[in-house]
Amino acid sequence: MDAYRILVMAHACLGTVALVSFWTAALSRKGSPRHKSAGRIYVKSMLGIIATALPIAAVAFMRGHTGTGIFLAYLVVITATALWLGWRAVRRKSDQAGFRDRTYLAVALANLISAAIVFTIGLRTGTAVLMGFAAISAYGGVTMLRRRRHPLNSPRWWLREHFAAMLACGVATHIAFLSIGLTRLLQSAGIEPGGILDLLSWFGPVLAALVAGVRLNRRYFPRKAADALALD
């Protein structure tokens, strides 16, 4: 078995661990030992996914699969950003100014730059998916810059940041699994996925995250509470 195949298998195994631990944390009581334990496993598995995705993307570029390479590299950017924000929010829950320091600014700018690059490539190649997908890091970067200038006015600001980041990370994880992992599994079984799977892989995780975000905000940030915030 060659090194690339081993790398892909490791990436897939880490992805499976990430999916299981993500849902374990999501379905556990927030702040419980199970939630924290599953969260730590999720973070570690996601770090492994990021580490293995980079060389896989590089190989895709070398083999002439530019679209796949761009897709994987861009997923690394938005996934790493979300993972970092979710972890950092918990670690710096008592220091919002420290959370939004110069490193935070650099990450925000990196997301805006990656959005511009992906959108430009999508425009030149006529790939609507890339152009639309660029909106994710563009929105994320703009939101980070806005919140750096106007921090969230709530003692539980870190919880909102943590929820949003983990949902974003989950979206990236599920999009990668549905659009690449599941597709390859079906093809290996002799089943050729159709357009429905393509739509599900892109819009399903986003829709699920939006619904989950609304429910979490209503539960932990009720509008009648003294520390309620406008959604932004």
Question: In terms of topology, how is this protein built?
Answer:
Layout: H1 3-27, H2 33-62, H3 66-91, H4 96-99, H5 102-125, H6 128-149, H7 157-188, H8 195-220
Helix pairs in contact: 1-2, 1-7, 2-3, 3-5, 3-7, 5-6, 7-8
Quick recap:
The chain is an all-alpha fold and 232 residues long.
Structure notes:
This protein has 232 residues and is mainly α. The chain has one domain (3-220). It has helices at 3-27, 33-62, 66-91, 96-99, 102-125, 128-149, 157-188, 195-220. Helix 1 packs antiparallel against helix 2 (33-62) and helix 3 (66-91) packs antiparallel against helix 5. The radius of gyration is 18 Å and the shape is globular. Mean pLDDT is 84; it is low at 225-232.
Give short descriptive properties of this protein:
232 residues, 8 helices, single chain, disordered C terminus, mainly alpha
The count of domains is 1
Tell me the distance between the termini: 49 Å
Order of helices and strands: HHHHHHHH
* SS field, number of helical segments: 8
Helix content: over 70%
Beta percentage is: under 5%
| Low-confidence spans | 225-232
The tally of beta strands, per DSSP, is: 0
Overall pLDDT level: 84
Rounded to the nearest angstrom, the radius of gyration is 18 Å
Structural class: mainly alpha
Global geometry: globular
What summary fits the major beta sheet?
A: none
